[in-house]
Amino acid sequence: xxxxxxxxxxxxxxxxxxxxxxxxxxxxxxxxxxxxxxxxxxxxxxxxxxxxxxxxxxxxxxxxxxxxxxxxxxxxxxxxxxxxxxxxxxxxxxxxxxxxxxxxxxxxxxxxxxxx
Amino acid sequence: xxxxxxxxxxxxxxxxxxxxxxxxxxxxxxxxxxxxxxxxxxxxxxxxxxxxxxxxxxxxxxxxxxxxxxxxxxxxxxxxxxxxxxxxxxxxxxxxxxxxxxxxxxxxxxxxxxxxxxx
Lengths: 116, 119
What we know:
heterodimer, A: 116 residues, mainly beta, seven-stranded mixed beta sheet, 11 strands, globular, B: mainly beta, six-stranded mixed beta sheet, four-stranded antiparallel beta sheet, 0% helix
């Protein structure tokens, strides 16, 4: 089915290990973003990309890196995981960069990441 | 900066009753969009309804309606005739223009309301 696919769904890391969360969309959407969801905090944006080769920081970017080499994929990398990065991570897309405000974002099913 | 406030951490409602979930927002942008998302226990984020700042009428989508009071900066979600399947987390969110060239910024979310529908 078309949509935003996130892998893995669950993962456990040890402090200091590295990890890449995968996000792939097959709707030819231009705008992709990563959010983290923590209890009592809602969702907060980490990084986003408006097109291949263009990325920018969101509200909580520290400790995370992203790249966008093509339209479909937007991986999120944790270089040295910390317990504070234990969270549920969502990737979201919108059809294009210059989308109207009314355009909702389509979310993947999330990746639940625990860092011990 | 934008801010969304949801003051109800949790709500218990009897099945078939109407539910109002509160949302207030703050932004200096005259143009903005307001969204409601539902997150069931399975975890996915489901888009429910949208209201634009210039929309003259309140948005409606089936059993969902948005009570938009612009002067009070409030955008409450109303669910009519609640069902057991409505039990979930509900998030209010806002988007504003990213820059003067157009295009929308990402979503700013509230902390959510956990709604439980009781039989």
